[in-house]
Write a structure and sequence with these properties.
Layout lengths: L1 H37 L1 H136 L1 H18 L1 H7 L5 H12 L4 H10 L2 H4 L4 H9 L6 H4 L2 H15 L3 H18 L43 H16 L7 H11 L6 H7 L3 H5 L3 H6 L6 H18 L12 H11 L6 H6 L4 H4 L4 H6 L6 H16 L4 H10 L12 H10 L16 H6 L5 H8 L6 H14 L1 H4 L14 H5 L9 H4 L9
Helix pairs in contact: 2-5, 2-10, 2-11, 5-6, 8-12, 10-12, 12-13
Keywords: Coiled coil
Protein name: Kazrin, periplakin interacting protein a
InterPro entries: Kazrin, Kazrin_N, SAM, SAM/pointed_sf
């Protein structure tokens, strides 16, 4: 019952709520109808407005339709224009395709032409380098032939000069044979009394040229009296008193007959002078000379002594130092500057004094011999006057100090003083039985021209020539000397010169041995230690790098640098040749060639960079020992230190 009553109550409650809602809706509905009734007029007004709006909308629609038609017409025009533009664009594209096609064709033709020109250029380059190589070889061959021709001409002139002297001697002796025959024995006695060495030299025969000329004259003489005179000339009595030059030539023995010694300074210092003197004489001057010579010899034969040889030293005039130059350019004006105004007798006497200097110890020299040696052998005629006033013998010369050389002889140049000091000490060693050093054969002309050209630094020739740098001085040069006195500031050039000197020292300054080794490897890629700068350039051409070979001119790159300098690798060689860094194949080729040439000999890695240092110790350990107590051996600072 309770449940039913409770549900009934709920239903009653819901019904009441529904009643309230319905009543509210009824009230609202009645109020809305009144509002609608009241706004009917407004609805009419709104309807009129809507109709007006509808008319306006229709008008707008008509306008839009007209605009649409207009736009369609414009669209059609635009479509036509687009079609025209497309047609124009297609034509332009066709023209562009034709242009591109023509351009590609022309480009290919241009590339083909460029390739053809490049091939032609390469061919011309090869021909150019072949012509340069042929020109270089022809120049070298011409120079070699010219030097050989000069040597032969020099030898011919020497023989002609000796023949002329022999004829003069023969003419002089035939003038007064009885008087000479009577004075022969006293002369021999005086010679034996003065010096035993001169007796040995007087017993020697005449030179081959003089003997040949005498035999020729003897055979072709028609008159019996002439034959008797010729026989007297070659008799033993008169063979004891020939010219000093003939004796000196005979003392040389077999050595004087070799071509190398004929070209050496020791032989050419007197023979070249005879060549020049004989070359400039005319037939009339020869007759005058013979007459003057006969008169003087008649006056001197009564004395019967060789002391007269030393008595004319103070009255001599200085000869041109270039007269005795040991160089290849024998046709220079300096060589022909000797004139007859100096007196042919003084010239002959000067040559005799030079021969005495060669054949006798320095301690036995007289004043005239010292002056002739200073002027001719040392090429220092500027100090002759002071020497004649202060130095009267070779003993005095041996006792001179550096201060005496500067104050007494006026030798203000440090390099000139050093040259004199080294030469004096070399002669002192020769008196002790050691003999003159091989460096004595290298005069300053050979050093300034031949040696500097071999090491590839001919640009310093004038400085070496000015300071009279000879072989002895080369052995004493240091890096400081090169920079201070010779103005060589480039470090690599200093190293190049010092290594060139080290090579000479390894060979004991024997230039004949050096030349022999260079001749053996001239056409073979062996023994690069002795290669000259020109031989290195030839090797560069042989390994197909001829376009870079000219880069080694005046660079100082020679065989001793390649072998003895541990820092000189392929990078340094490529830099010297001027090979660009981006040419890796060329540099790699150079590495292989240098390893093949130098690698086994030097035992070092040529492709690695190394620190600068001194010469290899093993090289210095094999150098010849040096003497003691001599400045020429005292200048030992030849160690090379690259900077």
């Amino acid at each position: 019952m309770k449940l039913s009553s409770f549900s009934l109550q709920e239903e009653v409650h819901l019904l009441r709520q529904m009643k309230d809602m319905l009543s509210k809706d009824l009230e609202e509905t009645q109020g809305g109808c009144s509002a609608d009734v009241l706004s009917a007029t407004e609805l009419r007004v709104q309807l009129a407005q809507k109709e007006q709006e509808l008319d306006r909308a229709k008008e707008a629609l008509q306008a839009m339709k007209s605009d649409r038609k207009r736009l369609k017409a414009e669209k059609a025009d635009l479509v036509n224009q687009m079609q025209q533009l497309y047609a124009t664009l297609e034509s332009r594209e066709e023209q562009l395709r034709d242009f591109i096609r023509n351009y590609e064709q022309h480009r290919k033709e241009s590339e083909d032409a460029v390739k053809a020109l490049a091939k032609e250029k390469d061919l011309l380059e090869r021909e150019k380098w072949d012509l340069r190589r042929q020109t270089k070889e022809a120049t070298e061959h011409t120079g070699m032939l010219r030097s050989q021709l000069d040597l032969k001409e020099n030898r011919i002139k020497e023989l002609e000069a000796e023949l002329a002297m022999a004829k003069q001697s023969l003419a002089t002796l035939t003038k007064d044979v009885p008087k000479r025959h009577s004075l022969a024995m006293p002369t021999e006695a005086v010679v034996n009394g003065n010096n035993q060495e001169w007796v040995m030299q007087a017993d020697l025969p005449l030179t081959a040229a003089i003997r040949q000329s005498q035999q020729t004259l003897y055979v072709h003489t028609g008159h019996p009296a002439d034959r008797q005179v010729a026989a007297v000339r070659v008799s033993p009595c008169h063979s004891r008193q020939p010219s000093i030059i003939s004796d000196a030539s005979a003392v040389e023995g077999d050595r004087s007959s070799t071509p190398s010694d004929i070209n050496s300074p020791r032989h050419r210092t007197h023979s070249l002078c005879n060549v020049r003197a004989a070359h400039h004489r005319t037939p009339q001057s020869n007759q005058d000379l013979e007459e003057a010579k006969r008169k003087k010899k008649k006056e001197k034969m009564g004395l019967g002594s060789l002391s007269r040889v030393f008595a004319r030293g103070k009255q001599r005039k200085s000869l041109d130092p270039g007269l005795f130059d040991d160089s290849d350019s024998l046709s220079s004006p300096t060589r022909h500057s000797l004139s007859l105004s100096d007196g042919s007798e003084d010239q002959l006497d000067r040559l005799q004094q030079v021969e005495l200097a060669r054949m006798t110890p320095m301690s036995q020299w007289r004043a005239g011999t010292v002056q002739a040696w200073l002027e001719v052998v040392m090429a220092m005629p500027m100090y002759i006057r002071s020497c004649s006033e202060n130095v009267k013998s070779g003993k005095v010369l041996l006792g001179l100090t550096d201060e005496d050389l500067e104050l007494g002889l006026g030798v203000s140049s440090l390099m000139h003083r050093r040259k004199l000091r080294l030469a004096i000490e070399d002669y002192r060693d020769a008196e002790n039985g050691r003999g003159l050093s091989k460096a004595a054969d290298m005069d300053h002309h050979w050093v300034a021209k031949a040696w500097l050209s071999d090491v590839g630094l001919p640009q310093y020739s004038q400085a070496f020539h000015t300071h009279l740098v000879d072989g002895r001085m080369l052995n004493s040069l240091t890096r400081r000397d090169l920079e201070r006195h010779l103005n060589i500031t480039k470090k690599f050039h200093q190293v190049s010169l010092l290594l060139g000197i080290e090579l000479l020292h390894l060979l004991s300054f024997d230039k004949e041995a050096l030349q022999a080794r260079r001749i053996q490897c001239e056409h073979q890629n062996v023994d690069p230690l002795v290669w000259t700068s020109h031989r290195v350039m030839k090797w560069i051409r042989d390994i197909d790098l001829k376009e870079f070979a000219e880069g080694l001119l005046n660079s100082g790159v020679h065989g001793a640098v390649m072998v003895l300098d541990p820092t000189f690798n392929t990078d340094a060689m490529a830099t010297a040749l001027g090979i660009p860094g981006n040419k890796h194949m060329v540099r790699r080729h150079l590495v292989e060639e240098m390893k093949t040439l130098i690698g086994p000999a030097s035992g070092r890695d040529l492709s690695c960079h190394g620190s600068y240092g001194s010469l290899p110790r093993e090289v210095r350990d094999h150098t010849p020992p040096r003497g003691e107590g001599s400045p020429i051996r005292g200048y030992t600072s030849i160690e090379v230190t690259n900077v």
